[in-house]
Amino acid sequence: MSESSIPAPVSAVVDAINDGDTDAFVGAFTPDGFVNDWGRVLNGPDGIRSWAESDAIGMNARMTVLTAETQGDTTTLRFEWRSQKFNGESDAIVVVENGLVKSFTIPPH
């Protein structure tokens, strides 16, 4: 997947996960941003940090983007995820607002 086809704010989230950088991950979101993982919504910097530690970076996650489609401020990703908690393919819907990620949603399958 070409990095140039992924908007910079979305790429920042993927890079932060793969770099194991929780501060960069949290910093990629708007102050009122959130992660919605299968209906479990974690709001604001504290919620986002909690998800990063319990489900992503703290579980040594690696995220490989397989496809990305952007329409307006919304990017839909198909990705492969490898971690100590979950392995497999999934989707994400990422909404960008003012150059930062407003929401990162992993819908249930």
Outline the structure in words:
The protein is of the alpha+beta class and 109 residues long. The chain has one domain: Roll (Nuclear Transport Factor 2, Chain: A). The chain has three helices and six strands. It has helices at residues 8-19, 22-27, 44-55, and strands at residues 29-37, 40-43, 62-71, 74-82, 87-97, 100-106. It has a six-stranded mixed sheet with strand order 2-1-6-5-4-3. A hairpin with a 2-residue loop joins strand 5 (87-97) and strand 6. The mean pLDDT is 95.
The H/E string reads: HHEEHEEEE
- Enumerate the strands of the largest sheet in spatial order, edge to edge or round the barrel: 2-1-6-5-4-3
Q: Categorize the overall geometry.
A: globular
Radius of gyration (CA) equals 12 Å
Task: Count the domains.
Answer: 1
Please give the CATH architecture. Answer: Roll
Mean pLDDT, all residues: 95
Kindly report the CATH topology: Nuclear Transport Factor 2, Chain: A
Structure in a nutshell:
Residues 10-85 form the SnoaL-like domain. 28% of the residues lie in helices and 46% in strands.
Please write out the topology.
Layout: H1 8-19, H2 22-27, E1 29-37, E2 40-43, H3 44-55, E3 62-71, E4 74-82, E5 87-97, E6 100-106
Parallel strand pairs: 1-6
Antiparallel strand pairs: 1-2, 3-4, 4-5, 5-6
Pfam family, one: SnoaL_2
Organism: Phytoactinopolyspora mesophila
InterPro entries: NTF2-like_dom_sf, SnoaL-like
Features of the shown structure:
SnoaL-like; single chain; Nuclear Transport Factor 2, Chain: A; 28% helix; six-stranded mixed β-sheet; alpha+beta; NTF2-like_dom_sf; Nuclear transport factor 2 family protein; 109 residues
